[in-house]
């Protein structure tokens, strides 16, 4: 009977050990997926930030150009009167 209890205890210990290893492996895999997802999100953020900055520069350039044209037309209109 003691031998049977030892066998059952050993089996229970091994089963619990397998479950813990599997849980650890799943947690490590989830961590890896989270790291990859974070890197992807950061890369996308950097890409969008660069696009935003480029749009800002283009907008500022266009506004400056339009202001220059408006000032020129205003000056020409004043000269013609």
Structure description:
With 81 residues, the protein is mainly alpha-helical. It is 98% helix and 0% strand. The protein has one helix and no strands. One of its GO terms (cellular component) is microtubule organizing center. Residues 10-58 form a coiled coil. Keywords: Coiled coil.
What would the keywords be for this entry?
PIBF1, 0% strand, 1 helix, 81 residues, Putative progesterone immunomodulatory binding factor 1, coiled coil
Rg (C-alpha, Å): 35 Å
How is the biggest beta sheet arranged? none
Fraction of residues in helices? Answer: over 70%
- Beta-strand percentage range: under 5%
The termini sit apart by 118 Å
Q: Based on helices, strands and strand pairing, what is the structural class?
A: mainly alpha
Keywords: Coiled coil
Protein name: Putative progesterone immunomodulatory binding factor 1
Coiled coil: 10-58
InterPro entries: PIBF1 (IPR026205)
Task: Summarize the helices and strands and which ones pair or pack.
Elements: H1 2-80
GO biological process, one term: cilium assembly
Keywords: Coiled coil
GO cellular component, one term: microtubule organizing center
């Amino acid at each position: 009977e003691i031998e049977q209890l030892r066998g059952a205890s050993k089996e229970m210990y091994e089963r619990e050990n397998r479950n813990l290893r599997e849980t650890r492996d799943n947690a490590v895999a989830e961590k890896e997926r989270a790291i990859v997802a974070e890197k992807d999100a950061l890369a996308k953020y950097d890409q969008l930030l660069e696009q935003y900055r480029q749009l800002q520069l283009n907008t500022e350039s266009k506004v400056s150009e339009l202001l220059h044209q408006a000032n020129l037309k205003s000056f020409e209109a004043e000269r013609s009167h």
